[in-house]
Design brief:
210 residues, alpha/beta, Rossmann fold, four-stranded parallel beta sheet
């Protein structure tokens, strides 16, 4: 591959994560030095960025490989001083969302949870073809991540948690959310919501992907 097209995923030195400063020729740390400096300044000079970064680093430093993602999310919300948590969930994972809401409330948080089908508008209203429905020629409510975000904006949540939104719907939710967003888990029904499985099995069962 041409060096100008190479990036971090093509690097096997990972010098940026060590005290070895022998960077490869295509290293992004070197290539984008001005942006590196700019990004660090945004951590230093933006109070929200600093608060989030410090909370994330403290959780990593103190609880790495000790707490589950659920527990880390609760700790993170506490550390950033969040009082009200928004949950953006798929209707297919609403049972899990209810359990998570119960955990949050047990820890003293106010919770507002919005399901993806909120608004109950048919998919064809935004131009989705009948053939692209899960069940063609039946009324099928569209997923509405924009409405989920807008409702949580009105609710004035301090942190929003994505639970099982479809690929792309999560993108729209994040785009329209006023509050910072974290992801508790991604939806992947084929792997039991463990989306990394095909990558771990890329040399065996999922070799077809390559």
């Amino acid at each position: 591959m041409e060096k100008e097209k190479m990036s971090c995923i093509d690097c096997y030195k990972i010098s940026c994560d060590s005290n070895n400063f022998d960077y490869p020729e295509f290293c992004q740390t070197v290539k984008y030095k001005d942006i590196v400096d700019e990004a660090v300044e945004l951590f230093k000079n933006d109070e929200e960025n600093k608060k989030i970064a410090l909370a994330a680093a403290q959780i990593e430093g103190n609880f790495y490989c000790k707490l589950t993602r659920v527990e880390e999310t609760v700790k993170f919300a506490e550390k950033i001083g969040a009082k009200k948590i928004g949950i953006a969930t798929c209707v297919g994972t609403i049972a899990e969302a209810r359990v998570f809401a119960k955990i949050l409330r047990k820890n003293g948080f106010d919770v507002s949870g919005e399901a993806c089908k909120v608004g109950n508008r048919d998919k064809t209203e935004i131009g989705i073809e009948e053939s692209d429905k899960v069940r063609p020629n039946c009324r099928e409510a569209m997923c509405n991540p924009i409405l989920q975000a807008k409702i949580l904006n009105v609710e004035k949540t301090d942190l929003n948690v994505v639970m099982g939104l479809c690929v792309g719907h999560d993108s729209l939710f994040i785009k329209y959310s006023d509050a910072p967003v974290t992801v508790l888990f991604t939806k992947d029904r084929v792997t039991g919501h463990n989306a990394v499985v095909p990558l771990h099995l890329s040399e065996s069962y999922y070799k077809k992907l390559l």
